[in-house]
Write a structure and sequence with these properties.
By secondary structure, the protein is of the alpha+beta class. The protein is built from 18 helices and 20 strands.
């Protein structure tokens, strides 16, 4: 069955695609995203003649509408682009503290107006389209506008997330109007959620671009609301914001080239963990030993997070010499009592892993018939971000400034995140484009999946489905054990027999959710995979559109 073309009158925006797949194949392009309607938006753009950048922007705006607990146009975005000729670019559109911000005098809180920084998503998506897209902003935003105007059926996971935040959302006028029913109750699974106010905001962006959002009518509405409520964001700070070049970092793993983005993203952390593991012969290990090694390598890389920031440190933590030095601390096969070296900071990693976030952030990947690939991660921070939506605009703001979700921010600083879009190549040819959602579990998910793919030789869908692990080095090893992909009882027992404390994690999605694409150069086909721990889909274009 062929998917209808963009703008076909037979398709209402709230209806799901004619097929729901977590694995799909196509030679005409691919989209993998965390919500089926966002996937569908990207595929429609591919089939209408768009390239991977066009499809990514369409899917990103659409998912901001249909997965509002996880991301928003008031949030932050990190983007990695592989161009058809092989060049790799990165865009940093992370939320930012205004240059006038003073953490010592600013009000604090776990959520609310004090948490709001300058949004980055609109600037990032606009730049992606202007520099690498082929269609107009009005065209690629059309699916998102239809979804907001006509509404969509709320999926069970989204309904549960919104319900969990309903009490805090109810504290703010705009948020109550847009994300609660008239009686104050949250939307339930299957309810139609229409957002005409957001649709109106999106239409203004579609015609006015980033200019209207950061320096025009929308900016004035945001700044006025912020001033009334004592928030840090001002008209000047909005006008000053720019989506910047991301620092692209590189490494390698067993002959595969790894390409990611540096702070405020976590690409270096992901690469470091894999290069630590490269010093070991994982294939010769038992399943339990391999799981312990992966957990320890991830913990060592996480310990190095406070060291990162300058470009000089980017080169250092992604070097093979650094990986070898850190690998000397691995204690695979014996009780893991090694921590940071004497005199080094000792992060409370046990509490970090123990929190295992219920889930925030969303990731999508796109590819087209000409070889362009995009990995794009958007987030609000915690579920529903700051919980604040400005009346008359219809979208939530991310949680950014210190005092709650993140540490206190310096003036002009961008929020450090665990976001890690990643490109994997072999002999210069693309193999994988992927990323994940799940807060601190983002590098965890990606590293586990690549070990399953490279060292265990699993097909890409099986590598994403296979169980994940993190921890060790003086603390417990957290192991995924929910029904389906969880570690077997025999592996758990093997790890315990080494003297390692095991914490079983039963919650679905606790170890991150990957949405990625594999390329088969021998056939020219794309394989899209959506993490089975989520409600997303992968879908290929069913006919030749544009590209490149």
């Amino acid at each position: 069955m062929l998917a209808p073309a963009l703008g076909a009158g037979s398709l209402r925006a709230q209806e799901p695609p004619p097929f729901q797949l977590q694995v799909d194949y196509s030679s005409h392009g691919m989209v993998s995203a965390a919500q089926p309607l966002a996937t569908w938006a990207g595929v429609q753009i591919l089939e209408a003649g768009g390239n991977a950048a066009d499809a990514a922007v369409a899917a990103a705006y659409a998912i901001a509408v249909v997965e509002p607990s996880m991301n928003s146009i008031g949030g932050r975005t990190q983007i990695l682009i592989r161009l058809p000729g092989g060049d790799v670019r990165g865009i940093d559109a992370t939320t930012q503290a205004p240059w006038s911000y003073d953490a010592e005098t600013a009000p604090t809180g776990d959520y609310g107006y004090p948490q709001i920084g300058v949004p980055g998503a609109v600037a990032g998506l606009t730049r992606l389209l202007e520099e690498h897209g082929s269609l107009s902003l009005e065209t690629v935003m059309a699916p998102a506008i239809r979804l907001a105007e006509e509404g969509f059926r709320v999926l069970p996971g989204e309904a549960a997330r919104q319900a969990s935040q309903a009490a805090q959302v109810a504290e703010f006028e705009g948020s109550r109007e847009y994300f609660l029913k008239p009686d104050g109750s949250p939307y339930e699974a299957g309810d139609l959620l229409a957002q005409p106010v957001l649709a109106n905001t999106l239409r203004k962006i579609a015609t006015g671009g980033a200019e209207i959002f950061y320096r025009g009518e929308i900016a004035r509405a945001m700044a006025t609301d912020m001033e009334i409520h004592g928030a840090a964001v001002t008209m000047e700070s909005l006008a000053e914001y720019r989506a910047e070049d991301a620092v692209v970092v590189r490494g390698s793993y067993r002959g595969y080239e790894l390409v990611g983005t540096y702070v405020p993203a976590a690409g270096a952390q992901t690469i470091e963990a894999l290069q630590i593991l490269e010093t070991l012969n994982l294939r010769a290990m038992s399943a339990g030993e391999r799981a312990l090694a992966v957990g320890q390598a991830l913990t060592l890389a996480a310990q190095d997070w406070p060291l990162q920031g300058s470009p000089d440190m980017a080169a250092r933590v992604t070097s093979k010499a650094w990986a070898a030095e850190r690998a000397a601390r691995l204690t695979v096969g014996s009780p893991a009592q090694v921590g940071a070296g004497e005199g080094e900071p000792q992060p409370d990693l046990e509490s970090v892993w123990a929190r295992l976030p219920k889930g925030n952030t969303t990731h999508l990947s796109t590819a087209d018939s000409e070889g362009m690939m995009v990995a794009l991660t958007q987030t609000l921070g915690p579920l529903m971000g700051s919980k604040v939506a400005t009346p008359g605009l219809g979208f939530l703001y991310a949680s950014t400034l210190g005092g709650g979700y993140l540490r206190p921010m310096a003036p002009g600083e961008r929020a450090a995140t665990n976001i890690s879009p990643l490109l994997v190549l072999k002999d210069g040819a693309p193999i994988l484009i992927l990323g994940a959602a799940g807060g601190g579990m983002i590098p965890v998910a990606i590293v586990n999946a690549i070990v399953h793919f490279v060292d265990e030789g699993l097909p890409f869908p099986a590598a994403i489905t296979a169980p994940r692990v993190v921890g060790g080095l003086g603390g417990p090893l957290f192991m995924e054990t929910h029904q389906g992909p969880g570690w077997s009882a025999s592996v758990l027992e093997e790890v315990r027999a080494m003297g390692i404390e095991v914490r079983e994690v039963l919650r679905t999605g606790a170890f991150g959710r990957i949405h990625g694409i594999r390329y088969f150069s021998e056939t020219g086909h794309w394989e899209g995979v959506a993490d089975p721990d989520w409600e997303g889909t992968a879908l290929g274009a069913r006919r030749q559109g544009g590209g490149g």
